[in-house]
Amino acid sequence: MPYCVVPANSYGIINEIDFNSVQFLTGGQASCTVVWVLIDTDAGQQVAMAHVLSANLNDGYNGNPVDAGVCEERLAGFWDNYLAQANKGNIRFFTGQNPGNSTENATQAIKNALNANDNPGDYNNPQAAAAEYAVAADGQLVLNGAPSWAQAKNAVLGLSEDPQVRTNITLAMAIGMDGNTLHANTSLVAGIENVDVP
To answer: What is the Cα–Cα distance from 173 to 153, expressed in whole angstroms?
Structure first.
């Protein structure tokens, strides 16, 4: 089955035409926060999903969520193109295998930014997930039958023969993409948004 593979510190999108055939796949999730969002566009509906390194949305000095402006900046294109225009009811939060205070703070930082932005609607309760899982385009968790993160890494490595790109893929699939700002997953390698993972 094809998957939109979302390494840590990145986000991916699925267009409406692929809603029934492509799922999101993420892994290596301990205290990270995964956020799924549905929006309407001129070209139809789109879903996006981000794997947020919770520490990036925590103020390291006092253990609180970062302020709304910093949160928006660090969510980058995921904020600008998806969260900023979403109804809160069309946003879902998933926690990993070992959620903690940093996970709660990251979720609260996003909520604070949405509240400051006056997004309409009511929040869904965060859902507990696992270390590795898929998310269907409709936002439903797929805990059984999803490929492993190791399988996903091999599939993504198969998208490029460039040694530098392959090194970047290996790092991103192990520890996430670099920096404290979310990257589009397609900036890692072309085809990652629709790759067959056996």
So the answer is: 6
